Amino acid sequence: MSDVECIDGRTKLIGLIATPIGHSVSPAMHNIAFRKLNLNYAYMAFEVGHEQLEDVVTGMRALNLRGFNVSMPNKTKIIPLLDELSPVAQLVGAVNTVVNENGKLIGHITDGTGYMCGLIEAGVDFVGKKMTLMGAGGAATAIAIQAAMDGVAEISIFNSDDQFFPQAVKNAAIINEQIKNINCKANIYRMEDSERLQEEIASSDILTNGTCIGMKPLENESLIPDASWLRPELIVSDLIYTPRKTKLLEQAESVGCRTVNGLGMVLWQGAKAFELWTGKEMPVEYIKEQIF
Ligand code: NAP
């Protein structure tokens, strides 16, 4: 039996603010980890959209919460309400984890590092390798920046000539011009250029789907028209984890590629946030057994 058996007068609260919220695995993940390590914390999800965001952050300051996670649609909107950003959150322009350091709210982004840790856990060696990354939304932006910082040598970013294309251009510019002391080249292409997409995949070591294609209601779709675009040496990864095996990952398996789904990313982005709040490592193997 653990010493911390229930919420008491010393329990530190961590929140999650997002909408919709009911599907999130984060409350279970963090509360199980707190109990396992006998830490006197509790994690609660709050349904919060743009309209209530400012009041909620003021309230969290007033209640002196240890921190909170931020998910859609608040990841960028929250930035002006915080006191400081980590260098990576500044580059990505988004925050998924806030830490209250003695009244100062500091924004971090653990999505990109969570994805890279998921690759490491799957035994993928990405240093000096080439990645084709489909998408330039919130998650793909965090991955592009972190991959460049963690040693990926070349990233070909594809996005449709649509809402997120300017973000794709911005991500490539940040990698090529702004981040110091890295050795990474970013290319930017339109997803509509399928000849180019096929060529870039053919010369890549890793293919990553950072779009919502493959997730409900698009679970029968893939951005790759044909499995013949893939080859067994290619590592194919998808940020989606519901379903566990997207159409893209099925195509990849059919030609013998190693595949990585989005479960590692969700687990490790949580583990990194957990560490920022508690200073302890999340017991990830235990969490996997309990939840995934
Ligand atoms: P987002 O910011 O809305 O970005 C969506 C991306 O998908 C954009 O690049 C968008 O580009 C693209 N897209 C949308 N419709 C498309 C279409 N019909 N054809 C081609 N591209 C399309 O969303 P997000 O938060 O980055 O999430 C993206 C995916 O990552 C989702 O599937 C989400 O579940 C997953 N995710 C996983 C984790 C994890 O921990 N595993 C974490 C976050 C997100 P255009 O609209 O410009 O075409």
What bound compounds does this protein have?
NADP nicotinamide-adenine-dinucleotide phosphate
- Give me the number of helical elements: 10
CATH class of the largest domain: Alpha Beta
Principal-axes shape call: globular
Number of domains: 2
Helix content: 25-40%
How is the biggest beta sheet arranged?
6 strands, mixed
Structural class: alpha/beta
Q: Point out poorly predicted stretches.
A: none
Strand content: 15-25%
Arrangement of strands in the largest sheet: 2-1-3-5-6-4
The chain-level mean pLDDT equals 96
Q: What's the number of extended β-strand segments?
A: 12
Q: What is the distance, rounded to the nearest whole angstrom, between the alpha carbons of the first and last residues? A: 24 Å
CATH architecture of the largest domain: 3-Layer(aba) Sandwich
Radius of gyration using CA atoms only: 19 Å
- Taken in chain order, the helices and strands follow as EHEHEEHEEHEHEHEHEEHEHH
Determine the CATH topology of the largest domain: Rossmann fold
- Within CATH, the superfamily of the largest domain carries the name NAD(P)-binding Rossmann-like Domain
